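Quick one:
INPUT:
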């Protein structure tokens, strides 16, 4: 028998013999409920929502602007190279 098979067998035997402690479980639930704050969550005000939306719009505009500036700086003043003139074939 491999080592992992023995470990698996021990774990299964332990799990089969486990008896949950109902009193401990209920006490833990009661402690959690006692710590719960029943006050309702406050809804954000219209001004708060507007400020948050303006902040997000400013962030997006800044990121896009920086992307354009960095691209322009990396490429240089001319974004497209001048056209290459091919010699015409001789007739």
């Amino acid at each position: 028998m491999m080592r992992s098979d023995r470990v698996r067998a021990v774990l299964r035997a332990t799990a089969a013999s486990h008896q949950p402690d109902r009193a401990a479980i209920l006490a833990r639930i009661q402690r959690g409920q006692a710590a719960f704050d029943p006050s309702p969550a406050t809804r954000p005000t219209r001004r708060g929502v507007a400020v948050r939306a303006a902040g997000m719009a400013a962030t997006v505009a800044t990121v896009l602007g920086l992307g354009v500036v960095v691209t322009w700086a990396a490429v240089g003043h001319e974004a497209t190279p001048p056209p290459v003139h091919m010699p015409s074939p001789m007739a």
